[in-house]
Structure prediction request, 1054 residues.
Amino acid sequence: MDFLIHVDQTSGVALHRQIYDSIRGAILSGRLRSGEKLPSTRALSKTLGIARATVTMSFDSLLSEGYIEASVGAGTFVSRALPEELMRPAVQSIDPASLEVITPKVKARIRGRKRKDGSEPGSSGEASSAGDPDKVQGYRLSWYATALRSRQWLNFSAEEPAVQLSFGRPAMTEFPMRVWNQLLLHHARKRNLGILDSPANAAGFMPLREQLAAYLSRVRAVACQPEQVIIVNGSQQGIDLVARVLIDRGDDVCIEDPGYIGAQKAFEGQGANVLPIPVDKQGIVVEAMKEREIIQPGFSPQLIYVTPSHQSPTGVVLSVPRRLELISFARRVGAYIVEDDYDSEYRYKGRPIPALAGLDHAGTVVYIGTLSKVLFPSLRLGYLVVPLDLAEVFTRAKWLADRHSPLLEQQVLCDFIRLGHLERHVRRMRNLYDQKRKLVIESLKQHFGSAATVLGDAAGINVVVRIASVLNDHEIVERAKAAGIGISSTAHCYLSQPPRGEFQINYAHLKEEAIDMCIEKLAEIAL
Amino acid sequence: MDFLIHVDQTSGVALHRQIYDSIRGAILSGRLRSGEKLPSTRALSKTLGIARATVTMSFDSLLSEGYIEASVGAGTFVSRALPEELMRPAVQSIDPASLEVITPKVKARIRGRKRKDGSEPGSSGEASSAGDPDKVQGYRLSWYATALRSRQWLNFSAEEPAVQLSFGRPAMTEFPMRVWNQLLLHHARKRNLGILDSPANAAGFMPLREQLAAYLSRVRAVACQPEQVIIVNGSQQGIDLVARVLIDRGDDVCIEDPGYIGAQKAFEGQGANVLPIPVDKQGIVVEAMKEREIIQPGFSPQLIYVTPSHQSPTGVVLSVPRRLELISFARRVGAYIVEDDYDSEYRYKGRPIPALAGLDHAGTVVYIGTLSKVLFPSLRLGYLVVPLDLAEVFTRAKWLADRHSPLLEQQVLCDFIRLGHLERHVRRMRNLYDQKRKLVIESLKQHFGSAATVLGDAAGINVVVRIASVLNDHEIVERAKAAGIGISSTAHCYLSQPPRGEFQINYAHLKEEAIDMCIEKLAEIAL
Prediction:
């Protein structure tokens, strides 16, 4: 045997394990070749000065795992079933070029192979991320993956600035975390670890679905049965499930322009033909879809995605006439309305407007609710309210996606709603955010004067401001960043030509004293 | 005005709210029609005996929400922008037939509309679930949804029997829940609610990814960087993401037959051409794929899905020669190997065999790890280890799917591994399960004798038993159910003709005394 078995009596690793490791290593690295004869256990025990039983133990393991094979009367051999090429040391290195050495034929074959549907996901005109997005080391990815790779992706900075205006985060210091943690511990202690592990419960913890159905009826005028409520991991999963269940490649999908990029990307990922519909002071311009109908007879979008409570990003609230017009249009052309009702809790002017899902009773609306912005973002819980006849297929889709959302947090949230904490918290926050909102508006008026126009301040936890500046958006963002302020222009939310100088100010999580300081600083930068 | 405004001074609801509610209700129910003139605030205040300012407040709300509109000098009117048809009372009822009344034209149009790709997801030959699976109330669903609806779905009973042998559940009473809960409370108390809310972190909490990379290197011989580890909500989400990123409609996908149904359904949902590959005592028969290559020149499956540590459901361990043969084959034909390494922790005979991901260094293997069967099923955490060049696209797919997995549980799990609890727990359980496993086998021998053959007892937390019985599978299941025992035949795991009398016995969660009782009962039933 031209390989060495290292045995170290003092190493603490059992001797039979050391022998096993040495022989296995020699086989896998190619030092011992397929079909090569091994010394007998007797010979090896003598050479190593180790009890024969110990050596036999190692051989038994190697035998049972198929590294070696015994031939009666002839001895023990390295398994002949081990493919030769895998034994070569080259394979052990992490050199990506090794693939090319091994499989030039395969690569050529794959190169010649065409997508079965002939379509080109990367052909949206946007810049490719790197090289051929369709191939990874000669392997082909799916159309979906290629769409994700080839299109421009969200590009957020990894560092967190001192003051962050870019994301809609709640005032986390105000969250009743003690109450939440008490409930968490209560349920953690008494948890029945087995429940929920069945496809029937993929839609979620039934008592929570009941609480949510009642909550929606109280605060959003949505009359639904608990069976229509599907618990998901935040609104993004809701959007993704909706995209998968409703959209096929090539389907027309209407979205708001500007709009929520997480939805746009999900629809594009499904291959939707995404149609940007303009937004005015009353929300999505239904008339624009009607005009399209004239130009394109038979126009029948598969779905229309809207954020009616607080349009993302402009903050416009969809007016009641527009709501009714939208429902009427959607029914007429056979489109689903997907109502992403984020930020519906915080409305400062007038009474809450009923959700589209509350105005419609014909199964036209799929409602997406989130609690991330009301509770805290790292809690991944949201819900869908789907027409009753879609509940089963959404439940199956949820099961296939990840079986179910984590149970413990569902139980905690259920109690949090049942005991009135949610509505109490929302009421408290509404007042607090209203004060902050007023401060933002005052402060903008003071420091920017007529150079700033505020939009979308009737609801939600941010406003949009249009700034008349000599600087371009990129310059403002960069200079703000240098001053420790994270701010994003809304340009990335537009599919059409974005306006200049439009920024989001998310104020909910800011301390009151930070608001004025920060806006003063921005004025110094921009004006 | 032919509608009544009900005002109740004692109700506790503010008067302006009562007026608002009455008028709004009248508009939405159609009692007040579009364009109809409202009384003046002065007149209404007189009629109702209420301060004019109160009435004005209600009108302002209705005005700002678009229910009514004011025309200078002419008075106030129900908004003309409200589409007439929505005002009809019929719409308020939840009568599904109402849609048909409203939109016969739409239905006809949709009926005439063909799927853009011309394919038929429901045409797999299996029975349709109900009516036309492609349509819901005249709306069309996606190909994916139709595939989910038309194919036979998993059919588990909602009631839980006294003894459940059907699901692979761990011995939950043995889980160190106190330790877990201490960590949970610790992190819950100090949680930084803001972190993880960015696309860069969709792949998960970096310290956990580092712990898992180190853990895999220790116990599975998988050398990977933390950047290759993507945290997901249990292995089902891992499978689903793999399906979405790697599979296009029409792609050949090889799966084990019998195999794991959750994977099969996910691949079918993506439109894969699922090819069942037989399993023998060494695991998936790679030779069968090679034979297919001869019959079908250019055969190049997109991926090969395997459960090598403990084949699902047979329990066979994929032998080392077969592993190497599989890797070699996959590389040659340009297929990804998807290694679902569930149950790898529990191996009773011989040493753990290195994972396929540990044997391959050329980016051929996507590894799926789960902790549900080691910790507890309602914890939804698992992970993928993907070739480095796929990490970015998987992270994007995860972001679109649900942004990220819940942070708190990731932090807890990270500490649980870091402090050695995971490996300690696995070692303890391995001994415990080994005892139970032996008991199952002894008990089967005692009560069934030669009428039972045990398979797949070298690893995992279940065995498969083939029973020679005069009864058919369905009769055995039903009689066991009547006796309080939940048992599933493996028939639903087969794409080919299933054998008769093959059942799974999941023993991990059973008390030792229950095991013998239960098997004795089954023998009484079956023999």
Residues 421-448 of chain B form the longest helix (28 residues).
